[in-house]
Write a structure and sequence with these properties.
seven-stranded mixed sheet; 7 strands; 24% helix
Length: 153
């Protein structure tokens, strides 16, 4: 089942080939960025960076984290855990693993819960997302796939 995702990219990329393949439900502009809200599976629309909300154990077993592990390989999970201890409310970046062939250069992990299976608190999910967006900005990444944030992970 498709989920609502946001695809962020620079405004100067208007008219790119992939725009025409998306059923855009809403388009927003923020400074020089376009934000497209679409009903789609996030893994089907990768950008330079992909944001994933995960737990502080770094276990990518289910949800979008599990999909990233399956599509990108176990080295992504190992690299994330190598940043440990993972602090709730912070964000960490890893390489793309096998997703590099799809144009992904970084996976951004927002640590939203202390352990697997727990629903994140809103304030923690927001802190982790802000930390993740700051990483995207600091690394000057040119696009981001952002799935639903704040669901059970």
């Amino acid at each position: 089942m498709d989920r609502m995702i946001a695809i962020l990219h620079p405004g100067d990329m208007e008219g790119t080939e992939w725009d025409t393949r998306l059923a855009v439900e809403r388009e927003l502009r923020l400074a020089h960025a376009r934000i497209l809200l679409v009903q789609a599976e996030p893994i089907d629309h990768p950008r330079a960076a992909m944001y994933v909300g995960v737990n502080a154990r770094g276990v990518l077993a289910s949800g979008f984290g599990g999909i990233i592990r399956l599509a990108g390989g176990a080295e992504i999970e190992r690299e994330l855990r190598g940043h440990g201890p993972l602090l709730v409310g912070e964000a960490y970046a890893t390489g793309p693993g096998l997703l590099a062939v799809r144009g992904v250069t970084r996976i951004i992990f927002g640590i939203s819960t202390p352990e697997p299976g727990r629903a994140p608190r809103r304030d923690v999910a927001e802190r982790a997302l802000v930390a993740g967006l700051e990483l995207v900005d600091r690394e000057r990444l040119r696009g981001l796939t952002l799935p639903e944030v704040g669901i059970r992970i």
